[in-house]
Amino acid sequence: MPKIKTHQATAKRFKITRNGQILKRKNGQDHFNSRESGVTTRSKRRDITIAKTEHRVIRQLMPYN
Questions:
Q1: Tens digits of per-residue pLDDT, 12-32?
Q2: pLDDT tier at 65 (50, 70, 90 boundaries)?
Q3: DSSP one-letter code for 9
Q4: Helix (H) or strand (E) holding 38
Q5: Among residues 46, 44, 51, which one has the least CA distance to residue 22?
Q6: CATH number, span 8-61
Q7: Is 59 exposed, middle or buried (0-12, 13-18, 19+ CB in 10 A)?
Q8: Per-residue pLDDT averaged across 50-65, rounded?
Q9: Residue 26 in contact with residue 33, Cβ under 8 Å?
Q10: How far apart are the first and last CA of the chain?
Q11: What is the mean pLDDT of the chain?
């Protein structure tokens, strides 16, 4: 049986940690950030974890991570 290809768009957007959590960048960081408060700007710098319900879909698109 042939290997399954990794979906490259998913591989660039998500990271699977050693403990099995899936991280992604918080959305809304691209532009219009000057109007945001300092608290919002700082919170956008952190990665956020994905809900367990969406793990199965991302794991199918990234089979070897």
A1: 999 999 999 999 999 988 899
A2: confident
A3: H
A4: helix 38-43
A5: 51
A6: 4.10.410.60
A7: middle
A8: 93
A9: no
A10: 19
A11: 93
